[in-house]
Amino acid sequence: MHKRWIWAFLIGFLVIGTAQEKPQVFRGATIIPITGSPIENGVLVVQNGKITAVGSAASVTVPANAEIHNATGKVIMPGLVDTHSHLGDVEGGDRSATLHPDVRVIDAIDIHATSLKKALAGGITTVNLMAGSGYLMSGQTAYLKLRDGNTIEELLYCEDPLNGICGGMKMANGTNPMGDPPFSGTRAKSAALVRQLFIKAKEYQKKIADANGDASKMPARDLQMESLIEVLEGKRIVHHHTHRHDDILTILRLQKEFGYRVVLHHVSEGWKVAEEIAAAKVPCSIIYIDSPGGKLEAVGLLPKTGAVLEKAGVDVAFHTDDGITDSRLFFRSAAFAVRYGMSRDKALEGLTLAGARMLDLQDRIGSLETGKDADFIVLTGDPFSVYTRVEQTWVEGQKRFDFANPEDRQYAQGGFQVFREAAHVHGIGGGEE
Asked: Fewer CB in 10 Å around end: N or C, the chain?
């Protein structure tokens, strides 16, 4: 009886010790929760990787045993969500075909790449990593949280990468995926190839339904078809590279035919068809670049796109497309959008909660609310000021970047170590953006 009591005590002690991480309190900052107005002299309490309280100093009770962080004069907001990035030497399909729905980028990501540290220096805590757009379908993307870890599994949002859905599906149209056979040579042929593949997927889906659980009647496993069924069932979101307005309308036409969920990426000429995008209830993730860089289909890109889409009622997020735009300059894209007419609140939401919605992660990240993951950044000033820098980046209550640390600071300021990967960011055979 005595031994049983001792074991019970020890087990209880271990459980309590594991569960009760010391709370951390950040106070004195201006807190931008995204879901509400900024909180002056705010208090943020985090424990066990979650936000346990957020509000004004008068409304939040500070735990007696908390570690206190004085954030007076700082700005605290949610960690940034980059909905389209090519960090980590990511790879996708190869030149054997233009349609690769079976390819998983989780099998080709270097999570120790310095580019991920650079993203943390820019305040990014969640990324949608994908292969390049040199294919009509370059493979399955991966939603990563930039935790500290040694394996890709430790950074994924999904719990079971072998059987779960760990990201979306990268697709592209326009000039990038064009080429000699087996690639399409025209926009019309590109659309036809995609339609045919989804028709095949629907037929495969019907065979499974007709088998009604009878293993002897089930079709042979097909990795391409299995991933496309996830798309057709709305479980895997399509993330679609597109620029010209006619290419955007082609995507909306295919989306209407097959009923899958899609996020439009780049949308250089989205301002021309904003009403059509809004009517389809399709969200957009946009990028701001100083020039189209020789890409003729992107010459229609205008800095007013965010404002026009917002006015039409489209859900708008931003992305870096790193290495097209440096992850450390992510705020710059939203600042441009505000300068050309987008509301400040929607631009801040576009860096955070809107992006989370486009990854189906809005219940965990994107805003500072009780119960959500403790992913946040500490800024030296206004998010859209050119003089502001990211001072700290926290992921699930763990400090992942600190400008005061000389080793971390190099990823904020540049240097050879940071840029050594610049020659290889889009994968084998992948086009830009």
From this structure: N
